[in-house]
Amino acid sequence: MSIFMIYAYDRAYMLFAMVFALLATIICSKIVMVQLQVLAEADNTSAPDEEAGERDMSAVVRGSTSNPLSTGFIQEYISLRLPFELFWGYSVCLVFLYLNTWLLAFGLNPKALAITANVSILSLLVIATYILWGLKQGNGRHLYGLVISMVWYLVGVAIELQAPSQPIYNEFSDSQILRTQFYAGLASTILSSLVMTRIIKSLIKRNVFNIMSACQGKDAEGAVEDDITTGYVHA
User: Fold this and answer.
1) How many whole angstroms separate alpha carbon 214 and alpha carbon 217?
2) What does the angle CA 192 – CA 197 – CA 198 come to, to the nearest 5 degrees?
3) Could you give the CA distance from residue 32 to residue 30 in angstroms, rounded to a whole number?
4) Measuring CA to CA, which residue among 175, 172, 158 is closest to residue 124?
5) Confidence of residue 169 (pLDDT cuts 50, 70, 90)
6) In the predicted model, is pLDDT for residue 23 greater than 70?
7) Which residue in 41, 45, 82, 224 is deepest, having the highest Cβ count within 10 Å?
8) For residue 148, is it left (φ>0), alpha (ψ between -120 and 50) or beta?
């Protein structure tokens, strides 16, 4: 799919490039959702059958992926999910990029093109925020890679507009360029803060659950000991 996008972009077939980017977005989203579904089913699998001497391999990931800094999460994420999430996020950004380039070919006035570019940045911000905070995933699995890919793209836009190419200079005014650069930098900063906040919240939530489980375990052990002591006294 990437080859088709690159070929269409080099040939200035922006509509086809946008369509291929949209197809890549859909395919990556399906792959990531299937991965999350499989991992969620592994979390719900029963414990290993010790009598039969079998070891359930889903126990490797069960309960270890809600902590973003745990070894289980890092191994699972880098090896299984991160490549698809990064490409998914990059494909979403390319859809908006090719859309703006395609509209440029229609000869729209610079003001309309600048508004379209700023709306695209706002759309990426809304999509990434929803994916990170509104899209509920089982056992603390969030799509960090997708949002990080969008942050990388927006940072690239802001850096590129510090010294824009000559065609951009010729097409847009300085105020329009600076405004778009500001929006791209602001959106990347907001998304970076949201990613860090999401990670910190997951860590806090995980630690609170561990503390509560430990306290409940101690209370249960204390109750058992009290029952044993009471029974011994009555006897």
Assistant:
1) 5
2) 100
3) 6
4) 158
5) confident
6) yes
7) 82
8) alpha
Q: What is the CA radius of gyration of the chain?
A: 25
DSSP code, position 51? T
The interaxial angle of helices 14-43 and 82-104, nearest 10 deg, is 160
**At residue 114, does pLDDT exceed 80?**
yes
From the centroid of its chain, how far is CA 33? Answer: 12
DSSP-derived secondary structure for 77-143: IIIIIHHHHHHHHHHHHHHHHHHHHHHHTTT--HHHHHHHHHHHHHHHHHHHHIIIIIS--GGG---
pLDDT-derived band at 74 (thresholds 50, 70, 90) equals: confident
The DSSP H or E segment spanning 177 is helix 174-234
Structure confidence at residue 64 (pLDDT): 46
Residue type, 188: S
Q: Any residues with CB less than 8 A from the CB of 179 and at least 6 apart, and which? A: 114, 118
Six-digit token string for 218: 């101690």
Q: Are 96 and 124 in contact (CB under 8 A)?
A: yes
What is the full DSSP assignment across 60-95? GTTTTSSSTTSHHHHHHIIIIIHHHHHHHHHHHHHH
- Residue 133 pLDDT more than 90? no
